[in-house]
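Standup notes
- HV: blocked on the assembly model, inputs below
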Amino acid sequence: MKVGIIGIGHSRFGRRDDVTVQELAFEPFVEALNDAGIQRKDIDATIIGASPVYMTQRSIAGPITEYLGLNPQPVWLTEAACSSSAVALRTAYALISAGMHEIILVLGVQKMLENPTSEVLKIMGRSGDVQWEAPYGTTFANYYAMYANSHMAKYGTTSEQFAAVAVKNHHYGAMNPLAMFQKEITMETVLESRIIASPLHLFDCCANADGSAALVVVNEEKANQLSDTPIWVSGLGAASAPFSLLTRPELATLSSAVEASKIAYTQAKVHPSDIDIAEVHDCFTIAEIMAYEDLGFTERGKGGEFVEEAYIGGKIPTNIDGGLKAKGHPVGATGCSQVVGIVKQLRGEAGKSQVDGAEIGLTHNVGGHGQYCVVHIFSR
Amino acid sequence: MKVGIIGIGHSRFGRRDDVTVQELAFEPFVEALNDAGIQRKDIDATIIGASPVYMTQRSIAGPITEYLGLNPQPVWLTEAACSSSAVALRTAYALISAGMHEIILVLGVQKMLENPTSEVLKIMGRSGDVQWEAPYGTTFANYYAMYANSHMAKYGTTSEQFAAVAVKNHHYGAMNPLAMFQKEITMETVLESRIIASPLHLFDCCANADGSAALVVVNEEKANQLSDTPIWVSGLGAASAPFSLLTRPELATLSSAVEASKIAYTQAKVHPSDIDIAEVHDCFTIAEIMAYEDLGFTERGKGGEFVEEAYIGGKIPTNIDGGLKAKGHPVGATGCSQVVGIVKQLRGEAGKSQVDGAEIGLTHNVGGHGQYCVVHIFSR
């Protein structure tokens, strides 16, 4: 049984004080329905990917379903920190493969900015170990700063290489009308910005954001019946790693990403070199460099150099929609947003950032500071 | 492909200041592993059912997996308010049916009481509509009080009938060494207790609690290979309903329960009269009375009378482990706890509360005030 995506929707990411969470969910929902050419009554289950702790309204799946007019169909929420909506897609894949549903709405949504920044930082930090690490002052950026320092020490990776990731992603973000930041930056912009957690500068970090993205996921029969351009989910990998850095043997890699990608490659019967386009989880620039290595795009230690190969025309164009870095990172929405980017590319609908002839795409969605990783592979 | 349960574990419910969330998860985990006769390395995915908003530690699935020694296997959390861990079982069923995993740990866990009572009440209330209803003073008990008033007005149901549910469930709770309250009560205990939300007395309400429960869920081959007494998941139904009471046409029923049970009965190819034993979501006594009707155990309006048929020896013995009412209701754990109760009964291991010859069991797990309902049917 193949599982396909026949509809996509994506809100504008950024500060969205203009909408409630329900209204924010409505935007990509309607777009995805129209894109798939179906009605809301055709949907027979909804899986919401979101991190509940940012919201005043508790148990948001219910309110969203009501607002979208989807009762009495089943709905629930999946949570794995920043990989919540990749897990929602994984769940939908399972439900459809099992024959339990035929047409599922997968929707990632998050409004972070209605909380004061100090509160958002506190919530982010609480995805680290509150018992044994937080008392020593860990914030979320600190974790990635430790990865960056470790990568620099071990492989000689430089601040300029980190900055190059930001430059690339803002370059492509400038072409994405839904991105939070649609502006090119230079290496100086990054290196001269203030230090957030050494060695990471402000421009090495993605921004908290509000946003949503939606997918219409269907079984093989419906895909062929309803769409001329279904995009197939051809490989799925998911893995976990210790969330306490105390217990990780190595800080310059995310072992969950290594494990998850192996499983996904095996299922999809492809190798890293077969990937035409990738969306990776660049919550910090170091994260994208680790992703190149963890996913096997390049050798271990060579991630810093690979960024030049991650432009269109390079070996594996990566984060061509701007990535978390330029799009913004509304935690629960990011997993779906990555898939929307890949689906557009595989359909050949990515406009001026189209990768010619892209046939196989990959998403790499990390939860927390690597305690979860979900990798999906897609094909035309 | 059949999906079976071959291992169960259940912590003591109540005030559990003696353990962290991770330690609380460990208790039923070890018990379920031993019960299934497997090792932790045999588990190839974990689904946690919990409501994240009660916890200081964010994204608890990661910390739990690390503590249980389950890395690098995939893990995530499912949330649908009080039905979070029924949804976790539904997810596991799909993953196994789809052939994505063979042996899954489903674990429901919640520590509510580390929060001050005022905070718990606030969190509970926030599962109602914070935009349009909470400003008018709705608390969680208020919703069920409105259902109770509606049921009384429409069908003449009495406070004594509500109280009879509490008396029955405490009667059986007194036989359950893991229940929060192991003490019989009388009708006077209920009727003379203070009003929480009219017409509901204190003893019409279940108690917030800490607790956990775990299931080892496997595919047909593993079930037959590893267990002499696998219990099969033979029907699964899930449905939603508007969470705003404003938009519900009727308050004396939960339409999500009606829908979910229809689907489950159809899949299991059974009728309500075939059910030998049920665990229903008695967060308030009125909820159990509505459940009798919504599940088709009795005619609409006759729920108040049916409680006499819900004892052992009656038509459908219900909440024979004490229900939420006497066991306590650790939100995320309740769905799994209900399943543990049914599995024990179908195995014939329920001791002095055994229902002789029970072959078909049902769980009815409501999320929020009915915006979600998950119904499972089990057979020997």
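- HV (later): unblocked. The mean pLDDT of chain A is 97. Residues 331-347 of chain A form the longest helix (17 residues).
- Next: hand off to the docking folks.
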